[in-house]
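2024-03-11 09:14:02 DEBUG pipeline.ingest accepted 1 chain
2024-03-11 09:14:02 DEBUG pipeline.ingest length=400
2024-03-11 09:14:03 DEBUG pipeline.predict start
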Amino acid sequence: MNNRLTPLKNIAKKDSRIILGLMSGTSLDGLDIALCNIKGNGLNTKLSLIQHTTIPYQSNFKKDIKTIFSKENVSLQKLCLLNEEIGKTHARMINSCLKKWKISNKKVDLIASHGQTIYHAPKSLHQLKTYGNGTLQIGDGDHIAYNTGIITVSDFRQKHIAAGGEGAPLAAYGDYLLFRQKDKNTILLNIGGIANCTFIPAKANFSEIICTDIGPGNSLMDAWVQKKYKGKYFDKNAMIAKKGKVNSTLLKSLKSTNFFNLAFPKTTGAELFNIDYVLNAQQKSKTNNISSEDMLATLNLFTATIICESIRKIIKKTTRCEILISGGGINNPLLMENIKNYFTTNKVTTTAEKNIHPEAKEAILFAILANELIAGDNKTFGKGEKGMPNIGMGKISFPN
C-alpha cells in the first residue's frame, strides 16, 4: 500500500482520534482552534474537548482578506496569493498553539480546516438560470498539511453542493451526533456573522431535523461599528446599543427583504447582509439622521427578532423546546436579553449546558465531519434529505 495511505488507514482503525478543528467565520475575527478527542463514529460518537482557543487576526491580515471578501469584483492575483497565505498563517497558528499546549504535532491524527469563506452564492441569491449553488473557501489544505506535518481535511462545502445542497449550513451533521435528546426538542442556535440553527425533535431521525441559515447574526452590527467608529470592530458588551432607542420605522424596513419569506432550509451570507443592506434600509425608511446609538439598538433588536421569529416558524406549536446558543453572539448581553425576552416559556442557555464550549462549537463540528469522513459509514445520515445529503465531506491533504 502507498506509504501515504497506510497512516490514514491506521487512523481510521483507531478506537479514538485526536482531531484539531479550525473555524474562521464571516465576521473575520480570527481562527477558532479546538483540539478534540473523538471516540467512535456516527451515533456512537463521543467527544471531549482537550484544548480550545481563538487567535485574533492581525489588522493588516484582516484588511487583506476584506479586499476580496464578499465582493463580485476582486483582484485574481490577491485571491491566489491569499489562498496560500491564509493556509500558511493558519499552520503557524496551529504550530504555536500545540507548542503552547505542550502537545507534539505527531500526536494529532488530523486537522479539520473549514478555511476562510470568501464568497457564498446560493442560487436563491444569484438567480442565474444557467448556474447552480456556489461557495468558495480559501486557505489551502496542502499548505496546512505541509507546514504542520499533519494530515489535513479541508474544503468540506464543495461535496455538499455536488450532492445537491447549498454548501451550508453544515452544522446539522455534528449537531445531530452531539446534541440529539430522547425526551426534549432541541434548537442549536449559532450566532456568528450569520445566524443559523438546527432543530432536532425528540427521538428524531436525521431526516426529521431542520438545519438552516436564518439571516444576520453579528454581521450588520459589526459593519455599522466598523463604518462609524474608527479602530473598533464590534460593539463590545453592547455598550453603544444600550445608549440608543429602537427606531420602529427603520426596523420595519430592515425586515422587508424577500429572503425572510423563503422556505427553510436556506442559506445566505455577507453578500446580502452587509453595510449596503443597512444603508438601503435607511434610505427607504427616511431614517438617515438617526444617531449611531439608535442604529445599533435597532440592529440589535432586528437581529434578535429575525432569529426568534424564524425559530418560532421552525418549531411551530412545539412548547417544550430547549434552545442552546453558541458563537460570538453570546458575548452581546443585549442581544441575548432580547432573545430570552422573546422565548419566555422556553429554556434558553448555551451549549456549555451540554459540555460543549459555545465559542468552540463550530470548530468542533468540523472535527466531527473529518472524523466521519475517515472513520464513518453511510448509515448514520439516512437516505439524504433535501439540503442534507448523506455523504462524506472534505478533501484530504498529506504532509509529504
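2024-03-11 09:14:41 DEBUG pipeline.report DSSP finds 13 helices and twelve strands in the chain.
2024-03-11 09:14:41 DEBUG pipeline.predict end
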